[in-house]
Amino acid sequence: MAFTLGVHESVDLIFPPTVLCDALDPDEDADSAGADAADSADRSEVRVVGSAAELEACDALVTFAYEDAFLSAGLSWIHSIQAGVDRFPFDELESRGIRLTNSTGIHGDAVGETVLGYMLSFARRLHHHRDRGREREWSPPEWDEPFTLDGESLCVVGLGTLGRGIAARADACGMDVVGVRRTPTPVVHVREVYTPGAIETAVAGARFVAVATPLTEETRGLIGADVLAAMPDSGYLLNVSRGGVVDEAALLEELETDRLAGAALDVFETEPLPEDSPFWDREDVIVTPHAAAATRDYYRRIADVVRENRRRAIAGEPLVNRVI
């Protein structure tokens, strides 16, 4: 029986759909893996899809966006190229027997390096120098502004793949790392783990607070006015999770009153970030366009997960990274 895997045109927001199709080409699998893969290749194909008619010709779909048309297309499985799946309607998918998988587990190094870059920019004032450089302005920082990461403190909120990637790199720089997760079990590179109920205690001594938790009903608005107020005046908030985890109005108020030293924000409640957002104009804020996980190898990492799940789907085996 043929198995058709669609790559939705919305992945073009991250990488060209054709490069993922090429990476998932069953003929290449057959060439590299022999007869067993050849048998599988005879029963599967991959194509770029967009219209409702094209969707209905597919058994499974790899996508960035969610569309209501997915529900009626007869799909058995949808794969999100992101780790976050808050855009997908779980109840509706489950009622139609559509399995949902995600790309968790592949972003730890990229996101970890991005957060390290944020911290280095703030510590070494690199964002200041870049901004002044555009104006051809030679503007050394005040003598007491720059610092080094060695010995500074970091609280990582969310210790999944992303959080652990952040913690490992911070630890390598000599930072004192604590974290927040639902279960306070030990985590490598993290000195102490707090539960969400003790988050204000966890952030109280942290120069940097990196938010890396998924957006769920429990985490929506988790970083609100009380948590921000618990951070030290010298603190920086770094958000690489989802915009809904942070109360943006409360954060802006803390920044406008100089209650916090700054923020690096990769995600927002509304994306793209509106042109009139006050975050754009603040010198103490680094804005990046939901790109913390970006890497030229992103599509290859997606392909590894999807290729394995395609094999499992054809063989009738449980899928990896299954959400529902």
TrEMBL record:
> Protein name, please?
D-2-hydroxyacid dehydrogenase
Q: Where is the signal peptide?
A: none
Task: Show where the D-isomer specific 2-hydroxyacid dehydrogenase NAD-binding domain sits.
Answer: 116-292
The keyword Kinase is annotated on this UniProt entry? no
Q: What are the residue boundaries of the D-isomer specific 2-hydroxyacid dehydrogenase catalytic domain, all occurrences included?
A: 53-323
Family the entry assigns: Belongs to the D-isomer specific 2-hydroxyacid dehydrogenase family.
Annotated organism of origin = Halorubrum rubrum
Would the keyword Oxidoreductase be found if you checked this record's keyword annotation? yes
Molecular function per GO: oxidoreductase activity
EC no. given is: 1.1.1.-
Q: What is the lineage of its organism?
A: Archaea, Methanobacteriati, Methanobacteriota, Stenosarchaea group, Halobacteria
Gene3D superfamilies the record matches: NAD(P)-binding Rossmann-like Domain (3.40.50.720)
Question: Keywords assigned by UniProt?
Answer: NAD, Oxidoreductase
Q: What EC class does the entry list? A: oxidoreductase
Q: Name one Pfam family in it.
A: 2-Hacid_dh
